[in-house]
Amino acid sequence: QVQLVESGGGLVQPGGSLRLSCAASGSGFSINVMGWYQQAPGKQRELVATLNNGGSTNYADSVKGRFTISRDNTKNTVYLQMNSLKPEDTAVYYCLAKITKGAYDYLYWGQGTQVTVSS
């Protein structure tokens, strides 16, 4: 069984920074892609950023230049550094991992961590 455990959310003022972490635990798997999605109240879950094994990143236009995704493969952990935060960044942030186990690929989600940007 693979589990994703997130941390790092909280309340921050506009212009501030937060760093989210997501660690994958379990055994017998390899991670292909890790990333972050956000879901604001009343809205669908949307892509924030992804990072694949080759180091390629993909960012939503709304976060380009402000957010940075990175990964520590030795710890199976992905990070999201969020700078210059805006009130519209307020959402629950979910970690995503696309994992290969045996002959199959699986998609796993974290439990979500709340980010609130407000003065």
Topology:
Layout (H helix, E strand, L loop, with lengths): L2 E5 L2 E3 L5 E8 L4 E10 L6 E7 L4 E3 L7 E6 L4 E6 L8 E11 L2 E6 L3 E5 L2
Parallel strand pairs: 2-11
Antiparallel strand pairs: 1-3, 3-8, 4-5, 4-9, 5-6, 7-8, 9-10, 9-11
Structure description:
- This protein has strands at residues 3-7, 10-12, 18-25, 30-39, 46-52, 57-59, 67-72, 77-82, 91-101, 104-109, 113-117.
- Strand 4 (30-39) and strand 5 (46-52) form a beta hairpin.
- With 119 residues, it is mainly beta.
- Strands 2, 4, 5, 6, 9, 10 and 11 form a seven-stranded mixed beta sheet that branches. A four-stranded antiparallel beta sheet has the order 1-3-8-7, with no helix packed on it.
- The chain is elongated and about 45 Å long.
Keywords:
7-stranded mixed beta sheet, mainly beta, 119 residues, 11 strands
Compact overview of the structure:
With 119 residues, the protein is mainly β.
- What characteristic shape results from the CA principal axes? elongated
Percent range for β-strand residues? over 45%
> What is the percent of helical residues?
under 10%
Q: Give me the count of strands.
A: 11
The structure class reads mainly beta
**Average pLDDT for all residues:** 95
Unreliable spans:
none
N- and C-termini, Cα separation: 40 Å
User: If helices are DSSP runs of H or I spanning 4 or more residues, what is the number of helices?
Assistant: 0
Mind describing the biggest β-sheet?
7 strands, mixed
Cα gyration radius (Å): 14 Å
Order of helices and strands: EEEEEEEEEEE
